[in-house]
Amino acid sequence: MMIENFNEKLFDYLKSLKVVDETLLQKAYDEAKSTHKSFYTVLIERELISDDNLGRMISDIYKVPLIDLANTKINIETL
Q1: Are 49 and 43 in contact (CB under 8 A)?
Q2: What was the pLDDT predicted at 3?
Q3: What one-character DSSP code corresponds to residue 63?
Q4: pLDDT value at position 6?
Q5: Of 5, 11, 14, 56, which is least surrounded by CB within 10 A?
Q6: Distances from the Cα of 71 to the Cα of 23, 56, 60, 66, 68, angstroms
Q7: Rounded Cα distance, 37 and 7, in Å
Q8: What is the DSSP track for 12-58?
Q9: Kind and range of the H or E element at 10?
Q10: pLDDT, tens digit (0-9, with 9 covering 90-100), for 2-45
Q11: At CA 35, angle to CA 69 and CA 10, rounded to 5?
Q12: Longest Cα–Cα distance in the chain
C-alpha cells in the first residue's frame, strides 16, 4: 500500500511540473503498477529523469532536506 501512495505522489508531482512528456510518464507509471516496481525505479530504468533530479523532487514532495552523501564527509567514529 505504501509504495502505491509514493508512486502516485511522485507521478502527480512530475505531471504537474511537466518535466517529462505526459505520455511517457503515464507509460512508466502503468509499468510500475503492472510489474509491482517502484515508479522511481521505472523512471530511472527508462532514463526519463536522473537519479539526482528524482532525489531533489522527492525531497520537495516530502519537505525534507536532500543530503548528498557522495559529497559529505562522515566521521569514521559515526560509523
Answers
A1: yes
A2: 66
A3: T
A4: 86
A5: 5
A6: 35, 15, 20, 12, 6
A7: 9
A8: HHHHHHT-S-HHHHHHHHHHHHHHT--HHHHHHHTTSS-HHHHHHHH
A9: helix 2-17
A10: 667 889 999 999 999 998 999 999 999 999 999 989 999 999 99
A11: 45
A12: 48
Question: Are 43 and 78 within 8 A, CB to CB?
Answer: no
**The dihedral sign for the CA sequence 77, 66, 47, 31:** positive
Q: Are 56 and 49 in contact (CB under 8 A)?
A: no
The residue to which cell 511537466 is assigned = 18
All cell numbers assigned to 46: 527508462
In the chain, the amino acid numbered 42 is V
Q: What are the cell numbers at 5? A: 501512495
